[in-house]
């Protein structure tokens, strides 16, 4: 099969298009014919060695944790799916090696769910990691009807899902973004504010009594800025800073979650959630996809098609 690999820690310049053996399909696993693979910042950060202290990486490495495709073979005791099923998933395994930047990938059934019927392959591939990150963050701080929620980096890959899920739950959402993304946030149901100096005052202008919960999807000083704005610090969750934990909040690392994937699919098929895909590139242009992702200027998702 064709795959994008790295032989050692490196960058976009080190990615190679190679022929690899087809993956073995173990118990409770299925083989997925990849239609599209989502690109996330963790892909190039992992490849650069930034996660080496906390995650085992084996080479040659095939990157990619987001997949949408068709079940091609079913392993032992994997009756949740059948050949021909359209699936999507967050395929993070016990170590990083055999990911989704390939024509085929083996995945445990606990990492997959039925693909949302209303989404294209490219849109579906953009959902799992970012969508689950947003969904699990929202669940962690108990966002519900009537809450006012502050979402940092609201126009980004994770933030856009956070806005949509919170709005679907009946919350009021204030989202930080650059001015060029304000109309985009309004289209998702959020009230936009420009990040940077004076952010706290701008948020207070919209919510004089403060906010009920904070979702930090950017890091930096977002948590520090938010703490004076939130009524309870235990309702602050971050995916990028341990500062929230110091004040009783949460640091979240997304987990595979088939029930969560099913919920995201339900929201998508009800017209309450979509994936904005800004760039679609063929698998062979994975290096360019990484460079676009590293720029930090992408609204929504970058997806590779296979």
Automatic annotation (TrEMBL):
Molecular function as annotated in GO: oxidoreductase activity
Pfam families given in the database record: ADH_N, ADH_zinc_N_2
Occurrences of domain Enoyl reductase (ER) (ranges): 10-304
Record EC number: 1.-.-.-
Keyword Oxidoreductase among record annotations: yes
UniProt superkingdom: Bacteria
Keyword annotations: Oxidoreductase
Xref: CDD domains: MDR_like_2
InterPro entries (alphabetical): ADH-like_N, Chloroplast_QOR, ER, GroES-like_sf, NAD(P)-bd_dom_sf
Protein name, UniProt field: NADP-dependent oxidoreductase
Organism: Sphaerisporangium rhizosphaerae
